[in-house]
Design a protein that fits this description.
Elements lengths: L4 H36 L1 H21 L1 H15 L3 H27 L1 H7 L4 H14 L3 H16 L3 H24 L9 H26 L14 H35 L1 H38 L2 H28 L1 H6 L9 H17 L1 H16 L4 H25 L3 H28 L5
Helix pairs in contact: 1-2, 1-8, 1-11, 1-12, 2-4, 2-6, 2-10, 2-11, 3-4, 3-7, 3-10, 3-11, 4-7, 4-10, 5-6, 6-9, 7-9, 8-9, 10-11, 10-16, 10-17, 11-12, 11-14, 11-15, 12-14, 12-15, 14-17, 15-17, 16-17
Length: about 450
């Protein structure tokens, strides 16, 4: 008997809530860095805001291979193909290792790159000090992403949550010790935050590997791990490449927004860093729902369940809409209270940062609906293994609409930071409309 709409909503929540919790715990790692560095110094906060944008561009492009593993494993699992599950996951790990190795020189030369991009010398130097250490963490971070996708596709979402929660707690302790020099350790500031992030990623990787080996022995993920499987390697590459480029196009838009804010000054960049953390927190809710949508769409396609695909899509989009409405109310109602969490009361720059931040948070509330809709649509399309056309749509939206709009409104129209964020909103609107049109066009066709 087909599932009802409410049953689809319940199934999505059962799968998605632990994933949301895991994403929030992952977000807490960056949030902890922002809060503690905001307490340490505004200069450190501004530099690490810039550095994190730099890191995330490279990290999330590489994470495309992990995202590809999720729908592939979901489909193989629905078809009872245990060998396919192992092959896809293992080649996702291979691709992540190769990409991490190729990315390392970019971190080591980050200061020169940031200076070429017009950043101030002091901020670029401090950001590069952070990146030269934190960059090594991309190896365990990407491997963890693959294993999380593998476990989520098998609907083992609780372990994904707990691995991430433990990692977030370790990051908080590490920041406390390394940034401020507690426990007899030297005070390291921004570099201390970078060191704590490496410890965090390594811990998460250890936990995920142990669970995969002990709880899922039938897949034998690491038995003869060195043996190449070129057919599956290129399948994961073919799907993961467009996903990585799609993610890169969105994340690089937000990274470019950090560059624009850096041109406006250290205070606007610090306000942007805090405001983007608040917007990212709400985005994690939609991202968890999008992951659940990917798994459920992949399984529906594996079963050949067209009606289940459509009803499930309607359910997850309804849930995303509800989340958007709630978060919009919170952001509009209490911007000062949210911003004040990141700054010490006696910080001399606090009034300026708060004044800029309130306006940015208001715009963040404005783009909640579209941000949620576009990421859930992407999740549904990935479940159908549809990645190339969405990549083009996303690239056009973020780079041909969002990026020029941000620059034009900020500097041409003289709107400053508000203009940067309004440009981001226009890019998200374009992406949401195009991606939803693409999904429903496929979901309603006979050739899905």
């Amino acid at each position: 008997m087909p599932m009802t709409f409410l049953q689809h909503m319940r199934a999505t929540l059962v799968l998605g809530l632990p994933l949301i919790g895991g994403h929030l715990a992952q977000f807490a790692i960056g949030l902890t860095d922002t809060v503690m560095l905001g307490w340490y110094s505004v200069e450190a906060l501004a530099a690490v805001t810039l550095a994190n944008s730099f890191f995330m561009v490279l990290f999330l492009f590489g994470a495309g291979f992990a995202w590809a593993v999720m729908p592939m494993v979901a489909r193989f699992a629905a078809q009872g193909d245990e060998t396919g599950v192992r092959r896809a996951t293992r080649m996702g790990l291979w691709l992540s290792l190769i990409y991490s190795t190729l990315a390392m020189p970019v971190f080591l030369w980050s200061e020169e790159i940031l200076l070429v991009l017009g950043q101030k010398a002091g901020v670029a130097e401090l950001a590069s000090d952070y990146l030269r250490v934190a960059g090594w963490g991309i190896v365990p971070a990407l491997l963890v992403m693959v294993l999380k996708s593998y476990l989520a596709a098998l609907e083992r979402t609780r372990v994904v949550l707990w691995v991430t929660v433990v990692s977030a707690l370790m990051n908080a302790v590490g920041n406390y010790l390394f940034i401020f020099g507690h426990g007899g350790l030297p005070e390291m500031g921004a570099v201390g935050a970078a060191l704590a992030s490496i410890v965090t990623h390594a811990t998460a990787l250890g936990g995920a590997v142990v669970y995969a080996v002990v709880a899922q022995p039938q897949h034998q993920l690491f038995v003869r791990f060195w043996r190449a499987d070129w057919e599956m390697f290129f399948q994961v590459l073919k799907m993961g490449g467009p996903i990585g480029i799609t993610t890169l196009s969105e994340v690089s838009l937000f990274a470019f927004s950090a560059m624009l804010m850096g041109w406006l000054g250290t205070i606007p960049l610090a306000a942007h860093g805090i405001s983007i953390q608040l917007a990212s927190a709400t985005f994690m809710l939609h991202l968890g729902l999008a992951n659940a949508a990917t798994v459920r769409a992949g399984r529906a396609q594996g079963r050949g369940d067209m009606e289940g695909l459509r009803r499930g899509a309607g359910a997850v989009l309804t849930l995303s809409l509800g989340v958007s409405l709630v978060t919009m109310v919170v952001l509009v109602a209490a911007p000062e209270a949210l911003l004040s969490l990141f700054l010490e009361p006696d910080n001399p720059d606090r009034p300026q940062i708060m004044a800029i931040g309130v306006g940015l948070v208001a715009v963040a509330a404005l783009f909640q609906l579209m941000d949620g809709a576009q990421v859930v649509a992407l999740g549904l399309l990935r479940g159908l293994h549809d990645t190339t056309v969405p990549m083009v749509m996303a690239g056009l939206s973020y780079w041909c609409v969002g990026l020029p709009a941000s620059y034009g409104l900020a500097f041409g129209a003289g709107l400053g930071g508000i203009g940067v964020w309004l440009g981001l909103t226009l890019g998200l609107v374009s992406a949401a409309v195009l991606l939803l049109w693409r999904f429903w066009g496929r979901a309603l066709s006979k050739g899905w």
